[in-house]
């Protein structure tokens, strides 16, 4: 993207080393822009669409939709600030705004994936497939792919901040990804446990 070099400037300024090697194409593909309002709406709309697809076949549609959204969005809200605080405390380089944009993009990409799966979910519901099995399988798939995509993007942002390939922040990012998945599962379980 044309804006990528300009966005690299504050990241690479953290090291200010003219001898840094050029960034690889893999790192160049990481988008450092903040999602536009349209892109954010598409991501949120995708999560709503997939949740609504399952809600149509549920005894309580609004409750089913709420559980899907609360588990995914709530996990990011609860664990995102933890990552932002711990990242510099552990001596890593990428600035907080770059991490925040990366997390925003992870929600957008997860929403796009959910949007693509919505028609398939509708077919399963229409065919009378056991709703809970399909719901949990799809939820786990979306969560797993979203988590993996987020992890790779965070590693790439750290590499861009340093100006070279580095795995120094990998333990932190892996731990945060696992924590986010655990929080999402706990939120989903708690949502159904308090079912009226």
Structural description of this entry:
By secondary structure, the protein is mostly helical. The chain has one domain (37-193). The protein has seven helices and no strands. Helix 4 packs antiparallel against helix 5 and helix 4 (61-89) runs antiparallel to helix 7 (170-193). The longest helix has 32 residues, at 131-162.
Key descriptive features of the protein:
single chain, 196 residues, elongated, disordered N terminus, 0% strand, mainly alpha
Question: How would you summarize this macromolecular structure in one to three sentences?
Answer:
With 196 residues, the chain is an all-alpha fold. It has seven helices and no strands.
Task: Reconstruct the topology from this structure.
Elements lengths: L3 H9 L12 H4 L8 H19 L5 H29 L6 H31 L4 H32 L7 H24 L3
Helix pairs in contact: 3-4, 3-5, 4-5, 4-7, 5-6, 6-7
Sketch the major β-sheet. none
Range of helix content = over 70%
Specify the structural class: mainly alpha
Elements, N to C (H/E): HHHHHHH
Distance between the termini: 49 Å
How would you sum up the global shape?
elongated
| Beta-strand percentage range | under 5%
Low-confidence spans: pLDDT under 50, at least 5 residues? 1-23
Domain count: the total is 1
Annotation, overall tally of beta strands: 0
The total count of helices amounts to 7
Rg from alpha-carbon coordinates: 19 Å
Mean of residue pLDDT values: 75
């Amino acid at each position: 993207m044309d804006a990528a070099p300009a966005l690299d400037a504050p990241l690479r300024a953290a090291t200010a080393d003219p001898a840094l090697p050029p960034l690889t194409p893999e790192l160049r593909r990481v988008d450092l822009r903040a999602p536009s309002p349209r892109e954010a709406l598409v991501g949120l709309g995708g999560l709503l669409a997939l949740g609504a697809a399952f809600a149509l076949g549920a005894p309580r549609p609004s409750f089913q939709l709420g559980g899907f959204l609360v588990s995914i969005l709530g996990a990011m809200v609860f664990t995102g600030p933890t990552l932002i605080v711990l990242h510099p405390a552990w001596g890593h380089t990428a600035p907080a705004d770059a991490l925040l944009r990366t997390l925003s993009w992870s929600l957008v990409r997860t929403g796009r994936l959910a949007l693509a799966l919505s028609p398939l979910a509708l077919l399963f519901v229409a065919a009378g497939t056991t709703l809970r099995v399909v719901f949990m399988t799809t939820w786990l798939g979306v969560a797993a792919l979203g988590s993996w995509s987020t992890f790779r993007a965070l590693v790439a942002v750290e590499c861009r901040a340093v100006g070279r390939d580095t795995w120094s922040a990998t333990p932190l990012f892996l731990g945060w990804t696992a924590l986010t998945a655990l929080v999402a599962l706990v939120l989903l379980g708690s949502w159904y446990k308090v079912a009226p």
